[in-house]
Specification:
By secondary structure, the protein is α/β, with parallel strands linked by helices. It has one domain: TIM Barrel (Alpha-Beta Barrel), CATH 3.20.20.150. It is built from 15 helices and ten strands. The strands form two sheets. The protein has an eight-stranded parallel β-barrel with strand order 1-2-3-4-5-6-7-9, surrounded by eight helices. A two-stranded antiparallel sheet has the order 8-10. Helix 1 runs parallel beside helix 3, helix 3 packs parallel to helix 4 and helix 8 runs parallel beside helix 13. It is globular. The chain starts with 11 loop residues before the first strand and ends in an 11-residue tail after the last helix.
Length: 379
């Protein structure tokens, strides 16, 4: 595949969980909406595939932590999903998320994790997909030792490379991760893994989250947001993005970015911190995780829908610009979550969000255009 030089030629992708969160938003409905919006690549969530399996096969038993369940049914459904994508002209860029894998010392837990990975590999084969995304573990019982984390991921990379066809692993920082929760952290792990099929998934929201939001806010949530809406980019973020550009500008490191996820984040004036903390407590998940699954609109959403209040406040363009300045021109995947809207019992939701994503992409390119010449070179 030829690497695009112009920003307008960059391949665009949309994630299936970002096309709706209600049971009426079936996987086939989401896939059609993604195709109709003009996307040629799709990122599919394993839970969307399993949700489709449950709809197609009542009584379906979901995959457990050891990769066990109604696996033959899951594989059959994966084959059907691939057929649907082929009919729609969609290529599956990646399957996500594979989580809570690395850093376990208990032999039984490690064995279960690898068995679950092998089940994922079977599903990827039926989907004709050669990339699996791994979220940095949010399990505090896992080891903080980066050598142990890298050991597990290195072994997984070797197993993935042995598949037919070989599978690439895209390691994504999760801002609520127990031990690895910055792009710098995932990069350090990536260097220690040191395998050609192991790289990174960078994400605008995840990169910004720990600077713009407090991972451990007070009980009333008054300090949830570290930066007010409309404030200049904070020095710590500026420095981190400068380092990102310098790191991945080297061609041998640039190729370690496997793909790039894009979303904004709702901030002060839109999110009620006390309510968010209560919801995170009820769900038993960290506040940043709750924020990630509920308050991640598209960039420029308030411009796309004038009069709305999605409240995006993160320096998304600065992050995108930092990645662009490395010279990397791989696929951009729009992965957004906005529970208040996506959770509605409304079959128009997939169309609304996928169409808005393509408009968001156009807004981003227009905003970046003054910084780049027509051929994509830096000014």
């Amino acid at each position: 595949m030829t690497t695009p030089q112009s920003l307008t030629d960059i391949l665009t992708c949309y994630a299936t969980p970002s096309a709706g969160m209600h049971p009426c938003h079936t996987l086939p409905l989401k896939l059609r909406a993604i195709r109709d919006a003009g996307f040629t690549l799709v990122e599919i969530a394993m839970f969307d595939i399993e949700g489709f399996a449950a709809q197609e096969h009542p009584g379906y038993k979901k995959m457990d932590e050891g990769g066990q369940g109604d696996i033959e049914t899951l594989i059959t459904v994966a084959r059907k999903v691939n057929e649907i994508c082929s009919e729609l002209g969609l290529t599956i860029l990646a399957v996500h998320p594979f989580e809570k894998f690395e850093g376990y010392k208990d032999a039984g837990r490690r064995e279960d994790s690898f068995e679950r990975a092998f089940t994922y590999f079977k599903v990827l084969k039926e989907l004709n997909c050669q990339m699996m995304q791994i979220g940095s573990s949010d399990d505090p019982s896992s080891s903080p030792d980066l050598d142990i984390i890298a050991r597990d991921l290195r072994q997984l990379a070797d197993e993935a490379n042995a598949q037919d066809p070989p599978i690439r692993l895209a390691y994504e920082l999760w801002a609520w991760g127990a031990h690895v929760n910055t792009w710098e952290g995932t990069w350090e792990v990536c260097k220690r893994v040191n395998r050609p099929n192991f790289g990174l998934c960078l994400d605008t929201w995840q990169i910004c989250a720990r600077t713009y939001m407090n991972p451990d806010p007070s009980k009333d949530g008054s300090d949830l947001f570290s930066v007010s809406a409309g404030a200049p980019v904070v020095p710590a973020m500026t420095e981190s993005l400068r380092n990102l550009t310098e790191t991945f500008a080297a061609p041998k490191y640039r190729e370690k970015i496997f793909y790039f996820q894009i979303s904004d984040g709702s901030g002060p004036g839109r999110v009620n911190p006390a309510e968010l903390l209560q919801q995170s407590k009820e769900q038993g998940i960290p506040p940043l995780y709750q924020c990630s699954t509920s308050w991640r609109p598209l960039p420029f959403m308030d411009d796309i829908y004038p009069g709305s209040n999605y409240g995006g406040f993160l320096p998304v363009l600065d992050v995108i610009e930092a990645v662009i300045r490395t010279g990397w021109r791989g696929p951009w995947s729009y992965e957004v979550f906005y529970q208040a809207d996506m959770g509605k019992d409304d079959q128009e939701v997939p169309k609304k969000w996928t169409t808005a994503a393509m408009k968001s992409h156009e807004h981003i390119l227009k905003a970046l255009a003054p910084l780049h010449s027509a051929n994509g070179a830096q000014d």
